[in-house]
Specification:
Layout lengths: L1 E3 L2 E3 L4 E2 L5 H6 L14 H20 L1 H16 L6 E2 L23 E6 L2 E3 L2 E5 L9 E5 L5 E10 L5 E2 L8 E6 L8 E5 L1
Parallel strand pairs: 3-4
Antiparallel strand pairs: 1-2, 5-12, 6-7, 7-11, 8-9, 8-12, 9-10, 9-11
Helix pairs in contact: 2-3
Length: 190
């Protein structure tokens, strides 16, 4: 939203319909679009994975969905810098649905890369953000599991071991404490 002399013009909080899923499913909606433009790969992967689990949980048991609601919210909050509202789903948003203060960004997670090839504890990734040997990171599994692990070794494209990797887009071979598979996403919490 653009800042004007009297405030902000349509500076909405990001829309999140997690709490509305039962109503949307019961209304017959069977397809959800995840906004990805101007978002990080970590955001898109986390939101898609979280919604997939929330929908599956609700279809299995509405009680399971209710019990896991805090987990869904926690997952989403780890990968974004903006606050959320339900947008225009129930009419015009209240003042709480809009952003009037530039300091409303929240802490998030740092996307390290996606496992392009995985064998045991070794992963090949194209590194997106800096991390170092000894860092505790999280392996995001497609089924919703988050596995905490430690970076034991980093090997650069030149075959040399390194303590850290400050240059984005470098292809790396990394050794972790835990097993990793193709398509797992690696992240580090702020």
């Amino acid at each position: 939203g653009r800042k004007l002399a009297g405030g902000y013009l349509m500076s909405m909080k990001d829309q999140c319909t997690l709490s509305l899923l039962p109503k949307l499913i019961e209304a017959g909606i069977d397809s959800f679009k995840i906004e990805g433009r101007m978002k990080t790969a970590l955001y898109v992967a986390t939101v898609a994975r979280t919604y997939r689990k929330a929908i599956d949980d609700f279809n299995e048991s509405p009680d399971k969905y209710k019990e896991n609601l805090p987990w869904y919210w926690d997952q989403i909050h780890q990968c974004t810098y903006r606050q959320y509202s339900t947008g225009f789903f129930f009419g015009k948003p209240s003042d709480e649905g809009q952003i009037y203060d530039e300091s409303t960004y929240e802490q998030g997670a740092i996307y390290l890369g996606i496992c392009e090839e995985g064998s045991g504890e070794r992963a090949i990734i194209t590194q997106k953000n800096k991390f170092s040997v000894g860092d505790e990171i999280i392996i995001m599994k497609p089924d919703g599991r988050d596995i905490k692990t430690k970076v034991l070794e980093i090997v650069g494209e030149d075959g040399m071991k390194k303590d850290s990797c400050p240059h984005p887009k470098e292809k790396l071979s990394i050794l972790l404490e835990s097993s990793v598979e193709k398509y797992d996403i690696l992240k580090r919490l702020n």
